[in-house]
Amino acid sequence: EKGTYNHFMLKEIDEQPFVIRNIIQKYQNENGDIKLEPEIRSAIREADRLYIIAAGTSYHAGLVAKELMEKEAKIPTEVHIASEFLYNEPLLSKKPLFIFISQSGETADCRGVLVNVKKHGFPSLTITNVPGSTLSREADFTLHTYAGPEIAVASTKAYTAQMAVLSILAMDSARAKGIDARFNAMQELGLIANAMEALCDQKDKMEQIARDYMYDTRNCFFIGRALDYHVVLEGALKLKEISYIQAEGFAGGELKHGTIALIEEGTPVVAVVTQPHVNGNIRGNVQEVIARGANACIISTEATEEKGDHIVLPEVHECLTPLVSIIPLQLIAYYAALHRDCDVDKPRNLAKSVTVE
Ligand code: M6R
């Protein structure tokens, strides 16, 4: 039930800190160690490469998961859009492990891949919010994201829950190989939950940005680099699916290869800036779009004097910033859709779970 909320989407955005705290509890044993089925640990240990298969928002969580698996656990990882993989299979490694990420566990494109994977006899793991779902029943192993029912078509808490579970999995996989991950997932997730709360308390600011930047625009661009690039893809998907604004996420360095031609006086550009090693580069990109007339909104870990609106994120570990930087993007998308009189929870032409190919 919606309770005091007008829309499930806003309720689900607000639930994210609780979901993250719940995940910490569910994946921890009495000694504070990570709780994971030993069979899942061995499946990961035995794999020479992980193939993450997903669609939409879950695919975006997969992009972040790849970074964590490769950078922390040193396991080669590929991420594929399910509907593409289904009809255009890449060259596979000798001992692949397939990981399906799906809120509903019912996405037909993912199921199509799983059926083929099983025919080949490859092992599979489903990460889902619905443990009894088709993908969960048919895969060898399941990890539950414990986000509670997600009703709004636009996925919010399921996305952050997926990334939280995958960060735990990455840290555990690193430990199993004797590698020290750069972060303690459980501790960091605790800080992330607090950071999410602090951002959810700034709804007035997000609403003002949505009104100023998106009320009557035809398009909106999101830019980021490295991990932030994956987040801007998700931010753009959120905005387009519920507000019908043409929204696209771009890698900052790609602007000059074409996209910057689209920037004109008043074009809204939202930049996410959380990755220290590319901080200067993306800030340079922001200057480039501002010089061509863009209205820039900068979501970053450090307050700066640049022109434009700023949202400053509470500090969390640089490997896990997507769990926090997505909150303003979700809220901005929500208020943009609201002000444009769109059906926030049930956008046109979309279904919550896509059970047809
Ligand atoms: O249930 P799934 O995670 O498999 O769904 C995948 C996509 O259909 C889904 O994430 C979709 O992109 C959302 N509506 C995005 O908000």
TrEMBL record:
Q: What reaction gets catalysed by this protein?
A: D-fructose 6-phosphate + L-glutamine = D-glucosamine 6-phosphate + L-glutamate
- In this chain the SIS domain maps to 40-184, 209-347
Q: What is its main location?
A: cytoplasm
GO cellular component term, pick one: cytosol
Kindly list the biological process annotations in GO that this record carries: carbohydrate metabolic process; fructose 6-phosphate metabolic process; protein N-linked glycosylation; UDP-N-acetylglucosamine metabolic process
Active site positions, chain numbering:
K352
- Keywords in alphabetical order: Aminotransferase, Cytoplasm, Glutamine amidotransferase, Repeat, Transferase
Q: Where in the cell is it found?
A: Cytoplasm
Q: Does the keyword Transferase apply?
A: yes
Q: What is its EC number?
A: 2.6.1.16
Its Gene Ontology molecular function terms? Answer: carbohydrate derivative binding; glutamine-fructose-6-phosphate transaminase (isomerizing) activity
Q: What does this protein do?
A: Catalyzes the first step in hexosamine metabolism, converting fructose-6P into glucosamine-6P using glutamine as a nitrogen source.
Name recorded for this polypeptide? Glutamine--fructose-6-phosphate aminotransferase [isomerizing]
